[in-house]
Amino acid sequence: MKTLNRDIWVFGDYRNYFQNRVTLQLLARAGELAPKTGGSICAIVFGHDIGEYVSEYIAHGAEKVYVVDHPQLKQYSIEAYTGLMERLIKAHRPEILLIGATCFGKEYAPKVAKRLKTGLTADCIDLDINKDGLMIQTSPSFGGNLIAEILTPNNRPQIATVRAGTFQEISHNADAKGEVISMPIPDDLPMERVRLIRSERLPKKGRKIEDTSVVICGGRGMGSKQKFKKIFELAHLMDGEVGVTRPVVHAGWSGPNTLVGQAGRQISPKILISFGISGAIQHTAAIDDADFIIAVNKNPNATMMKLADVAVVADANQACLAIIKEIKKKIQL
Amino acid sequence: MDFNPCMKHKVIRKSVRAFAEAELGPIVSDLDREARFPWEIVEKMRPLNFFGLQVPEKYGGAGLDSISYAITIEELSRVSGAMGLSITVHNSVGAYPIVRFGTEEQQKRFLPSLASGERIGAFCLTEASAGSDASGVETYATIDGDEYIINGTKIFVTNGGVCGLALIFANTDIGPDRKAPSIFIVEKETPGFSVGETEDLCGMRANPVSSLFLEDCRVESMHLLGQAGDGLKIGLESLDVGRLGIAAQALGIAQAAFEVSVRYAKERQQFKKPISRFQTIQNYIADMATEIDAARLLLYRVCAMKDDHMPFTAEASMAKLFCSRVARKVTEKAVQIHGGYGYSKEYDVERYFRDAKVTEIYEGTNEIMQVVISRSVLTRPS
Amino acid sequence: MLNLIVCIKQVPIVSELPWDSKTGTLRRELAEGMVNPSCKHALEAAIRLSDQHNGKITVFSMGPPMAEEALYEAMAMGANRGVLLTDKRMAGADTYITSLILARAIKKKCPDFDLVLCGDQTSDSETAQVGPQLAEELGIPGVTNVEKLDLSTHTLCLERQTDDFLEILEMDLPGLVTISPHYYVPRHVSLGGVQQAFDYPNVDILGTDDLELDPGLVALKHSPTKIIRVYSPATEKENIVLKGAVKRIVNELFDRFGDRIGGAMGKDLKTHDHP
Does any CB of chain B come closer than 8 Å to the CB of residue C69? Predict the structure, then answer.
């Protein structure tokens, strides 16, 4: 497909607006890229009664908003949304389409890319425009052990998904002006082959370990189930969450929902304190994004100790007790 | 001659390794410390055919070839020497003698519960006065009509504490004033059959090695394996197979010790560089790698000979002698490479070191292996 | 009879990745392969469905010749037959071309399928794109990250958690699902299963010509996306080592990094230290 313009489109994914700001973050990045492509920043919104999102997107940098507002679109529908995006893009032919890597976005983007016979890069950690005007899509693989730079040189649009938190949103500007282009729902959308029977917001399971800024990780080096409880105490004290390795789960010291690793959760806290973990790749692949790592281990040669910003050579259990004591002292003072 | 592992053997290795690392890996040091036999793991192993490795499929086994068998034991032992031991003893000297020498009636009756792991098998030769010398066996089975009455005490029985079925080496009368060893299949619920205390051993601590007592144990004559007086023949051939399993076990332990040593040598820094950059450590690693490779080739060759129905008694003894020796040497070097940490219970190498030693002792001591090998060599027509 | 397809990928075992320390790249040819963990969950889901509904399972995989092993592993777990798509011209395919080739193979070898099951993503490239793109290419509905499946006559009832919602969906068949690795914990491979798989081998090996793909198709050339550079992320950690008596180290830890620790907690730790 040849493009008609150099516009950058951002899919408006508002279902979790208050939890997930990825659309706003993408609008901000689109704003930084647009001067390099020479196009405008566009948001695409499907749904019903979505005026508030349209104005939010304009306030966060969208210059144009394409809107399809219809009761039939009240709930997210993968098939209808794919059909709509396909038609819109075929009609307007933008240069770039950015989609937030939410669960929906990860399902949606591949289908859209396939329909449009173009390329797609998943979970980009950076986006830029090279000297030829192509979008450089930087994407991790092997649990972050490898980084690849990817181009879609010949097909349009260039499509990428991006996880929440990768870019910074710009601040809300109530005075910003944008053009709203309302479109009717096409009457030839095919029958839905996937039908939503029931949808309910999951009960808030408290905060998720993925989102917290303090994570305390404990391994078998803590010694015993009894001693391991100190990990929970420290996490509580620091208002953080507990993450554990597979052997800890197997030993029954903590539940499988606390497993941090390739098969469990990926975390990106501001601070990670790791006690008695040797650092098998299955675990360390999931903690790459921690800003600052303090590792405690008796063995200074443990892999975990090499990965740490600060490696504390000590018995994990004793050090945990000492840190708890120290923090209690400081908080009380 | 093809030295590359075939696809089937690669899949077997991967599957057993995945099982062992996922299920045994997290608890193996606890099992050793607590000297606990993991029944919960046995439950998981049962549907996966670990208890019927070479039992024909019609009796619920996997019907594996002998190299697959060796790889299975090797990979279990790479994670837990004690579970490798349990499984190989159950299969090689518990189930195999019935597969090889049992009548159809005996196979139908005993193999399904062995192959499913419902009954764990044990093999009982050793007594206070009999070990390497099988003629010292004092356990006796006297004929009483259509039954045998067995009396005696067996010691150092691997799987003893958990066995559901034991093959008992006992003397029987085979003529006037003539006695000879025979083998009886005895189920644990037989009146008069009882299990002694678990031995407190240096290594293989998760395996409940214990004494077995037989006091006026009555069994029907269909429990006699082969003919009366066939005990030595059946026992020796079964032990040949048992030795392949022990060789595989020793190899698995050596492999584990080798892998952790290589990793440690690359991590451990002394004089501002990894110790793997010192020539002494490099020499250790080179020798370990070479010996393990030679041991593995020797073992797989004997397994192939067995499946080709060639005589393999001397070669089985060579494999057992060599693999167990390699295991002892490699685990000892592994401790040395780890220095003080290697002597600490916090690391696995001290367990490998303790577990490895006994492979030179059981299923025929290495001195007996040398007797078997030298006899074969010296009686060969020159 | 329920006709199921599972697509699996052989991926390098991460813990054994041979890294070239000089170039920071992966020497992939040296890596041992395994079935991608998430694909095993899909296979487990298929086996359970097949057991309930008297089905049969065909496993497809695209990859180097050694990926045949993955198909045998799948058959040892319970699949009935395997199809390996392997050809030098398929190398370097991105998700667009991979889904195109898989769809062609499915239409050729197993056109009457009811349901295709895929893992939710691979452990190597982690895109999660092949499943949804394969659904598009086959022209069938597709749903990702499915936790549980329940099959009635012509529709499949699906449960999934997505973006903090619990969704119950109904999908027409034929269709495609990708399976989220929570509910369908894969069984261990039984040794008898391995023996059976090799006793009765049932694997077709197909190349680009067998699939009657465009004779000019070269995956690397025709993939819309091009990898222009691959590198290991630089680690710029200082790796400060603290050792000695525990109490003293912990004091030092808070003296030097108390602001960082406090910052993450949202509390001011350091200033209170020396009032």
Answer: yes
> Phi/psi of residue A134, each to 5°?
-90, 150
Structural domains in chain A (count): 2
* Of C64, C62, C60, nearest in space to C29 by CA: C64
User: What is the pLDDT at residue C274?
Assistant: 45
pTM: 0.87
What is the pLDDT, as a whole number, of residue A17? 75
Q: Say yes or no: A108 and A164 in one domain.
A: yes
Q: Residue C59, CB half-sphere, CA atoms under 13 Å: how many?
A: 32
pLDDT tens sequence across B348-367: 999 999 999 999 999 999 99
The answer to whether the CB atoms of C188 and B18 lie below 8 A apart is: yes
A160 exposed, middle or buried (CB, 10 Å; 0-12, 13-18, 19+)?
A: buried
Domain ranges of chain C: 3-222, 237-275
Question: Does the domain spanning B7-120 belong to CATH 1.10.540.10?
Answer: yes
Measured between CB atoms, which of C72, C188, C195 is closest to B64?
A: C195
Whether B7 has a pLDDT exceeding 60, the answer reads yes
For residue B328, pLDDT over 90 is answered with yes
Sequence-ordered strand ranges (E) for chain A: 8-11, 41-47, 64-69, 96-100, 120-124, 126-129, 135-141, 146-151, 158-162, 179-183, 194-201, 214-218, 241-244, 271-275, 292-297, 310-313
The reply to whether A302 touches chain B by the CB within 8 Å rule is yes
Contacts of B18 in chain C (CB under 8 A): 188-189
Q: Is B259 a catalytic residue?
A: no
CA distance to partner chain B, nearest, from residue C76 (Å): 9
Closest CA to B96 of B43, B165, B155: B165
H or E element that contains C85: strand C81-85
* pLDDT score of C20: 55
Q: Which H/E stretch holds residue C34? A: strand C33-35
Q: Do C192 and B14 touch (CB under 8 A)?
A: no
Q: How far is A301 from chain B (nearest CA, A)?
A: 6
Residues of chain C with pLDDT under 50: 21, 24, 271-275
pLDDT at A207: 67
Residues of each domain in chain B carrying CATH 1.10.540.10: 7-120
pLDDT at A47: 95
Residues of chain A in contact with residue C242, where contact means CB-CB under 8 angstroms, are 310-313
Q: Measured between alpha carbons, how far is A320 from A315 in angstroms, rounded to an integer?
A: 9
- Domain B122-229 carries which CATH code? 2.40.110.10
Selected from 3.30.300.130, 3.30.70.20, 3.40.50.620, 3.60.21.10, the CATH number assigned to the domain covering C3-222 reads: 3.40.50.620
Based on the fold, state whether residues A174 and A214 are members of the same structural domain.
no
B266-304: pLDDT as tens digits: 888 889 899 999 999 999 999 999 999 999 999 999 999
Alpha-carbon distance B50 to nearest alpha carbon in chain C (angstroms): 7
Q: Do B8 and C198 touch (CB under 8 A)?
A: yes
Positions in chain A short of pLDDT 70: 1, 19, 143-144, 204-207, 262-264, 333
- Comparing CB atoms, the residue among C76, C188, C192 nearest residue B11 is C76
Inform me whether the C-beta atom of residue C131 falls under 8 Å from chain A C-beta atoms.
Answer: yes
Q: Classify the complex by whether its ipTM is higher than 0.85, answering yes or no.
A: yes
Q: How many Å lie between the alpha carbon of A299 and the closest alpha carbon of chain B? A: 9
Question: Which residues of chain A have a CB within 8 Å of the CB of B264?
Answer: 301
Q: What integer pLDDT is reported at residue B85 of this predicted model? A: 98
In which domain, by residue range, is A303 found?
A: 209-332
Q: Mean pLDDT across chain B, nearest whole number?
A: 95
Average confidence (pLDDT) over B60-66: 97
Cβ under 8 Å to B: A residues 238-257: 246-247, 250-251
Q: From the candidates B147, B291, B363, B367, which is the catalytic residue? A: B363
Determine which of A299, A305, A306 to mutate to test the interface with B (most B C-beta atoms within 10 Å). Answer: A299
Query: Between A271, A312, A322, which is nearest C242 by CB?
Result: A312
Q: Where would I find the beta strands (DSSP E) of chain B? A: 121-124, 140-144, 147-157, 165-175, 178-187, 193-198, 210-220, 224-225, 269-270, 273-274
Q: Which chain B residues are closer than 8 Å to A299 by Cβ?
A: 341
pLDDT of residue C273: 45
